[in-house]
Design brief:
13% of the residues lie in helices and 53% in strands.
């Protein structure tokens, strides 16, 4: 599985250069234009999403010495993030975490690497007399989960616990609208999995090397966010996500509920978040086979 290691380290080195070159494409949107403000809120909702894949830089403390650290970016390849029309985004993600037994505040035992390419169309419309923004997109994604050198891995061998991976294509629809002084956003994303192996009782390394055939799978993700439309300084927000992956002989059945309650501050270029999180159901990465309730306190920011 040396190919995964080389791919992710190369991606990490390239992310900074790509993000720097893409930054000038961001546009300043007049606050007086309600339609433009909704486009900005649609982009903001993706950053406030309770999804573990949201494009933010995040530290999440989950009690004891358990800390998760994530670097995830939304790099615009075509179209500004808060503009109507065609858009294409590159979505790289790397997350480090520890098991409860690892006993270190520095997340270093497991790592989860993910890269996605999303392209779609965003448009303004009116829904029941209310202004709204609708975004429809197609996403291609690959994720692989590994142990680091500290976790007894980094060079996956024949043990199926050393690596799990997911490849899928998703159809995503997101609708953002304002009601009174609040902005609401909801998304629906069916995902179709192929060439994926997430069961610990399978030898995923052998399968990746051309072993037994894979079985296709399907999952569904529903998310929702709410925050005040116009409020200076810190703004309270809440976010909810439900996901369900139907398992088979290669895919583990996964069900998750994630909820956040926090405060967001939107600067000129950076969106800051401080939040309380609750997550129930399956874990992430190599811990996806563990089902438990997790409470956490997180700090996140994103350039938008």
């Amino acid at each position: 599985m040396t190919r995964h290691k080389q791919t992710w380290w190369s991606l990490t080195a390239a992310v900074g250069l790509i993000a720097t070159s893409a930054a000038p494409a961001r546009a300043t949107i007049p606050a007086a234009d309600d339609g433009a403000a909704l486009l900005r809120s649609d982009n903001e909702a993706r950053r406030l999403d309770a999804s573990p894949h949201a494009s933010v830089v995040r530290l999440l403390w989950q009690g004891s010495a358990r800390v998760r650290g994530k670097l995830a970016l939304a790099i615009p390849l075509w179209g500004a993030p808060a503009r109507a029309g065609l858009f294409v985004h590159l979505l790289p993600l790397i997350e480090l975490s520890n098991s409860e037994e690892f006993g270190s505040l520095l997340p270093a035992q497991y790592w989860r690497g993910r890269v996605a390419l999303e392209g779609g169309w965003r448009t303004r419309l009116r829904l029941a007399g209310l202004p709204a923004v609708l975004a429809l997109s197609l996403e291609l994604m690959h994720e692989s989960d590994h142990r680091t050198e500290f976790g007894g891995g980094c060079y996956p061998g024949a043990n199926s616990e050393d690596v799990l991976y997911v490849d899928d294509v998703a159809l995503r629809g997101q609708l953002t609208s304002s009601v009174g002084s609040w902005t609401f956003s909801g998304a629906l994303a069916p995902r179709f999995h192929w060439l994926s192996c997430t069961r610990q009782d399978r030898d995923c390394n052998t399968a990746a090397a051309g072993g037994p055939g894979f079985e296709p799978g399907v999952s569904l993700i529903v998310s929702w966010q709410a925050l005040p439309k116009r409020l200076p300084g810190l703004r309270p927000y809440t976010a909810l996500e439900l996901s369900w992956l139907v398992g088979n002989s290669y895919l583990l059945t996964e069900r998750r509920l994630a909820w956040r309650l926090g405060a967001a501050y939107r600067g000129e270029l950076v969106l800051w978040q401080l939040f309380f999180s609750l997550r129930g159901g399956n874990g992430l990465g190599l811990e996806r086979g563990e089902e438990r309730l997790r409470l956490g306190l997180g700090l996140a920011f994103s350039v938008w």
